[in-house]
Amino acid sequence: MNRPKILVVDDDQVILKAMSMKLTPAGYEVVTAVDGSEAIAAARKQKPDLILLDVNFPADVGVGWDAFKILAWLQRVDECKGTPVIVISGGDAAKFKVRALQAGAIAYFQKPVKFDELLALIKQALAAPANPAPTPNPAG
Predict the structure, then answer these.
(1) Could you tell me the residue ranges of all domains in the chain?
(2) pLDDT digits (tens, 9 = 90+) for 23-38
């Protein structure tokens, strides 16, 4: 049986490791990326079933990435269209939550992450496309 694939995008190696340690035993294959360009490349190559995306990435030479630029790119990549994205941040929730949802994320989580809640949301998000048609009423 194929395990659902989750792409975790965060510049913090501790967060990447913690997410992998929680998601792998829960039955998910985990792919990681540390910035926007790695995220786009991994999304194209790995075709994840869901993406967990940090908001802020340190500025370096070249493109200044943040979750909103990455979301905009992902929405233009054929391999990622329709892939659910959950934005996770340690920043100001009031500042980022509405913006993340407006940019196309299905949910926003505040760090530190409550893994039980995150796992429940991941399970729900991955189950949603599998049941697009209503269940027939056996009595009816």
Answers:
(1) 5-130
(2) 999 999 999 999 888 9
